[in-house]
Amino acid sequence: MADIRQIRDKQPDNEKITINLGFVDLGRIDLLVQEGFYSNRSDFIRTAIRKHLDAHGEAVERSIERHTMELGLRDFGRAELEQCRAAGEVLHIKVVGLARIGSDVTPELARATIGSITVLGSLQASADIKKALADRIL
């Protein structure tokens, strides 16, 4: 029994959102699903969102450059934050996508090294980290 290790919970690779649609729009989506154009409502909505984002791709890229944000997945672990603390640096995190603060990061280390967090997408961190940084999450 001493060799049993807990397997970490798998982190989701997406974020669930809720939207409200009118009955007519919903019926039209259901009709397209029924006719086989899409596998389900979620498939239709994801496809529509991707097409809309693609149509505004250049504007998104310019905005990311203007705001000096990182695009995609960005992990912040204990080693990186320890280096920042040793150098006397404070991070101002700006991510479009997913920002993750590792489970090896203590609330004290996070407060000492993270000055602000702006995430357009999702921030994954323990409840203790989020509580410690609550006044810095923009």
From TrEMBL:
Coiled-coil features, chain-numbered ranges: none
Annotated GO biological process: regulation of DNA-templated transcription
Gene3D superfamilies, per database record: Met repressor-like
Top-rank taxon: Bacteria
Pfam families, A to Z: RHH_8
SUPFAM superfamilies reported for this sequence: Ribbon-helix-helix (SSF47598)
The protein, known as: CopG family transcriptional regulator
PANTHER family, sorted: BLL4998 PROTEIN (PTHR36215)
InterPro entries the UniProt entry points to: Arc_rbn_hlx_hlx, RHH_8, Ribbon_hlx_hlx
